Each structure stands twice: as structure tokens, then as C-alpha cells.
Amino acid sequence: MTDWNADLYLRFAAERTRPAAELLARVPLETPTLAVDLGCGPGNSTELIAERFPAARVEGIDTSPDMLEKARARLPKARFSQGDVGDLRLDAPADLIFANAVLQWLTDHEALFPRLIDNLAPGGVLAVQMPDNLGEPSHRLMREVAAEPAFAAKTGAAEKVRARILSVEAYYDLLVPGAASIDIWRTTYCHVLADAPAIVEWVRATGLRPFLDPLDEEEQAAFLAAYTQRIAAAYPSRADGSVLLPFPRLFIVARR
User: Which terminus of the chain is more exposed, N or C, with fewer CB under 10 A?
Assistant: First the structure.
């Protein structure tokens, strides 16, 4: 895929940061020495970690140069590096590994989650939040439009970029051999947005990227027009003209 667009991502910064704040609130740590933010993006989640644990050494890892540039400007005292979260190898065990809305882009969670636990110091915490919305109209309609004859030849592999996450039970079974305690819950946020095009703007920064990247400019415009029309039908206006975007997310806090 092309590089992430940090400015587009940050148009909904408050909504995107809220799950990170609620995840961090459940982290049972007092004075961690090293906290690592996986898929740190533009640093909005990293900033929360630095504010809660001012004495900790805070590091952020991301694949996107644009995101890392924004993160460094936001938090000049933190350390940010470009790297592959899926092959994490820390120089020293972390007291906190924080992964907000990133692990859903990676496959083979059966191997990934135990490896993340192994990168923790004794008593350290793995805190994970993943969107669980592939069955929502916002994402189902992406796949439907991509399957249309005008786009299918170029977008056929797009839905494979993000794999479906596992069940709650599966994550528990993966983590329990290396964890002293596990806290798992699911929350559905109902975001109040201006209209259907606002929903499209939201997902353009994330879920729509693998569908749009293979298309040229004219094809992208046609895809977005077809998708927006379906989104408007799936998310009708409420009494005040706004639309509601239900957004399920899965949370996991595991202590080694």
C-alpha cells in the first residue's frame, strides 16, 4: 500500500484517540521503565502513555514515514523508529507494550500474541485494541463495490490485506500460558458524524486504503461515488441530520 496520510487520519483524532485512552486506563502499572507503542501513528496514543507515565522511557514504532514525522513533532522527547511490528524484537524487555488499532493489519495472531508476551518484562503488560468491524456495513460495502466488474480486476486482493481477528476465546487460549492475568472486553462506539460523506472520509484513512490504492484517479472517484451512495443508504440521517457510525472494538489487557 501507499504511505499512510497522517493529516487525513487526524481529521477524526478525538474519536480515534478515545479507545486508546480507555485501553490505557485499564493498564495495571504504576511506574514502568520502558513503554513501547506499536503502530504509534501520529503519536496521539504515544502522548497518552507519556502523560500517564512521565518517568518512563517511551518509544513508538510505525511503518509510515509520514506518521512518524508527525509523531516526532508532537513528542520530541520520545523515541520513534520505523519498523515492522509483526517481527518485534526489542533490545530490552518492555514493561508495557501498547498496540492501539494496529494488530488487525497483521496475520498469524497465533504466533504474534505469544511473541509479544515474550517481549515483556516479568509483570509487564500487553494492552491491545483492535477494530472488530469487518462485518459492519462500512466494510461489507467496500467489498461489494470492489467486486463490481469496473473494479474487480484491480481490487480483488484488497480484502485480504486485513484478516478477520480471532474470537475472544481464541485470544484467551493464546495468552494464558504466558499471562498471570487477562482482561478481555468488547465495546461498540456509536460515533455521531455529520453525514454519509463523513463516514467515507473516516474510512478513507484506514479501511478503504487497500481498495483505493490499486486504482487510478478516475477509478478512485468512481469507486468513492458508488461506495458513498451505498453508505448513505446503510446509514440514514437521524432526527437532527447527523448519522451514527457503530464501531465495535476488541480490547485485551494481559499481564505477564
Answer: N
The residue assigned the cell 500517564 is 52
pLDDT tens digit sequence for 63-117: 989 889 999 999 999 999 999 888 888 889 999 999 999 999 899 999 999 999 9
Three-state secondary structure readout of the chain: CCCCCHHHHHHHHHHHHHHHHHHHHCCCCCCCCEEEEECCCCCHHHHHHHHHCCCCEEEEEECCHHHHHHHHHHCCCCEEEECCHHHCCCCCCEEEEEEECCHHHCCCHHHHHHHHHHCEEEEEEEEEEEECCCCCHHHHHHHHHHCCCCCHHHHCCHHHCCCCCCCHHHHHHHHCCCCCEEEEEEEEEEEEECCHHHHHHHHHCCCCHHHHCCCCHHHHHHHHHHHHHHHHHHCCCCCCCCEEEEEEEEEEEEEC
**Terminal CA-CA length for the chain:** 34
